[in-house]
Amino acid sequence: MMQRKGTTPTTFDLFADDTRQSSTSEQIGPRSFVFRGFALPLIDRLLPSLESVLTRAPFRNMVTPGGHTMSVALSSCGQFGWTTDRSGYQYTRIDPQTGQPWPEMPEVFMELARAAADAAGFADFVPDACLINRYIPGAKMSLHQDKDERGYEWPVVSVSLGIPAMFLFGGHARSDTTQRVPLFHGDVVVWGGEDRLRFHGVMPVKQAEHPQLGEQRINFTFRKAR
Ligand code: SIN
Ligand code: FE2
């Protein structure tokens, strides 16, 4: 459907020893892929781990340096969490809302991030930050680059859960045309290498209900911040 001309969806084994699960992938850039349903085999472990992270670091609507309150609510886990306020964007070790370190990255989150990066050709990814975004219907994320990390040699691994969203994948200039990539529960997108700094965003999420997550979309983005 969103297949680029000249690319063929390929079927591959998600985990070498688990042939019951397979998934299709789409290439959306030289080093960017969408892996459909990639997170589904881990979903029963992901959701309780997410709950536990959110108990310790609840979602909050942060303010941008420009003074705009984000429609997407955020949390983080891992060694570093991403924050924004009037003074700017930054990665911190402490959650400014609780005064505590960000919750540890659950083992299953790490497993998923590593497997997806590996499938995209980025072996041995060890993310130290996982941003957790919650979109309620109407929430969106404007086109931006992920560039608050210290280096760009590692990819961004992005996991979609809950209701669908239209992901916009642009180029290296904000004005470049964007590909529209519909993302569903369990889909994982990886972009790295020469694609690492491509602009991307999410269109306003449409009203819908997901059987497990209700009227929301949760997105994880794994990065190597430091
Ligand atoms: C992000 O760019 O941080 C989020 C992307 C998404 O929600 O799919
Ligand atoms: Fe981003």
Automatic annotation (TrEMBL):
Enzyme's top EC category? oxidoreductase
User: Fe2OG dioxygenase domain spans which residues?
Assistant: 126-226
Q: Which Gene3D superfamilies match?
A: Alpha-ketoglutarate-dependent dioxygenase AlkB-like
InterPro entries attached to this UniProt entry:
Alkb, AlkB-like, AlkB-like_sf, Oxoglu/Fe-dep_dioxygenase_dom
* EC number of this enzyme: 1.14.11.33
Binding annotation for Fe cation: 144, 146, 200
Q: Which residues of this UniProt protein bind substrate? A: 82, 89-91, 148, 174
Required co-factor(s) are:
Fe(2+)
Q: Name one GO biological process term.
A: oxidative RNA demethylation
Q: What is this protein called?
A: Alpha-ketoglutarate-dependent dioxygenase AlkB
Source species of the chain: Pseudomonas abietaniphila
The organism's taxonomy opens as: Bacteria, Pseudomonadati, Pseudomonadota, Gammaproteobacteria, Pseudomonadales
